[in-house]
Design a protein that fits this description.
Layout: E1 2-7, H1 13-24, E2 27-29, H2 39-44, H3 46-71, E3 75-78, H4 81-94, H5 100-114, E4 122-127, H6 130-140, H7 150-166, E5 171-176, H8 186-200
Parallel strand pairs: 1-3, 1-4, 2-3, 4-5
Helix pairs in contact: 3-4, 3-5, 4-5, 4-7
């Protein structure tokens, strides 16, 4: 089974992935951040490196999904292949940070890849306001994220909400991060687990 966690930068995807993997005994599959050769360059010069970064993520996540299905294990994935194509790449294009030629090339590749993979069995969307995102980004202290602008996070949030409002590929659970502190509060984590259990019973 494939469980996937979606959400904006700083929403808590990696933390929740680790906590749920530990609770259920699932295999965690994390986003490739530390070994991404483009992230630092991208945040310093978005226009120059946007296409390279998105292609790296697309390739990485396509391989992750293929490997998850091949493994036969129950895997929980930190971020989905859809978010790159539905949120990050079109946002960069609209901001003038990715050319139309590059964006169309990217979309064509994404559409081909999606035809070859299955969606997750359950999508967990972490909904968070911009102040919550900023607070959690600052708390984890990644150097390359220090230059992220508030308007950039706001635009991403708007795209996430639009995507989620139309998402029909699989079962979905929406978690309001503003109301919970699942990384420090066991009771808040239990609330999420109870909701996941209710969803999962319908998958077997």
């Amino acid at each position: 089974m494939h469980i996937a966690i979606a959400g904006n930068i700083g929403a808590g995807k990696t933390t929740l992935t680790a906590l749920l993997a530990k609770h259920y005994g699932w295999e965690p599959n994390y986003e490739t951040v530390d070994d991404n050769p483009y992230l630092n360059d991208f945040y310093n010069d978005m226009q120059r490196w946007s296409f390279n970064l998105q292609i790296f993520f697309l390739n990485s996540r396509f391989k992750q999904v293929v490997d998850i299905r091949k493994s036969g294990n129950t895997v929980i994935q930190d971020r989905t292949i859809y978010e790159d194509a539905e949120i990050f790449a079109p946002n960069l294009h609209d901001m003038g940070l990715m050319s139309t030629r590059d964006f169309e090339n990217y979309r064509s590749l994404f559409k081909l890849m999606v035809e070859l993979i299955q969606p997750p069995d359950l999508l967990i969307y972490l909904r968070a306001s911009v102040p919550t995102l900023v607070s959690q980004i600052q708390e984890r202290g990644r150097e390359y994220e220090e230059s992220i602008r508030l308007d950039y996070l706001k635009m991403l949030n708007e795209r996430y909400e639009l995507w989620i409002s139309k998402y029909k590929a699989s079962k979905m659970l929406i978690v309001n991060v503003d109301d919970l502190s699942f990384h420090t509060n066991a009771e808040d984590l239990s609330k999420i687990i109870d909701r996941i259990d209710a969803q999962l019973h319908g998958l077997f």
